[in-house]
Design a protein that fits this description.
Elements (H helix, E strand, L loop, with lengths): L1 H22 L11 H4 L2 E6 L4 E6 L12 H10 L6 E6 L12 H6 L4
Parallel strand pairs: 2-3
Antiparallel strand pairs: 1-2
């Protein structure tokens, strides 16, 4: 019985890790780095009911993929096994800036 409870308790964390992996397959076409390492993902919340809420931003409000990237993210997250549903919210606060990129992304772009 305890094993079942601990398995259920870890399910949201395991699902969150799968979400991070799938987010690393999404790219801003103007920058050759995935959106997760770019720092465009501000939050990932996975409920016990397996509902995934992603809070993300774009490099700028005038980003050419503003209409296509959030739905792409939502569809990829929804396609994961174990996800009941997914919702992506685009936020602008705080505004994105290059300091939000991972060290790996900065190195990849020669910004160390």
């Amino acid at each position: 019985m305890e094993t079942n409870a601990s398995t259920n308790a870890s399910a949201p964390q395991e699902l969150k890790e799968k979400v991070v992996t799938i987010l690393r397959t999404c790219f801003d076409p103007e920058i050759p780095v995935n959106i997760y390492d770019l720092g465009l993902i501000y939050g990932i919340d996975v409920t016990p009911e397996r509902v995934v809420n992603v809070k993300m931003t774009l490099t700028s409000p005038m980003c050419p993929v503003a209409g296509s990237l959030p739905p792409e993210v939502e569809n990829k997250v929804k396609s994961l096994d174990g996800v009941a549903t997914a919702k992506v919210a685009v936020v602008w606060d705080p505004p994105w800036n290059p300091s939000m990129m991972s060290e790996a992304a900065k190195l990849q772009l020669g910004m160390d």
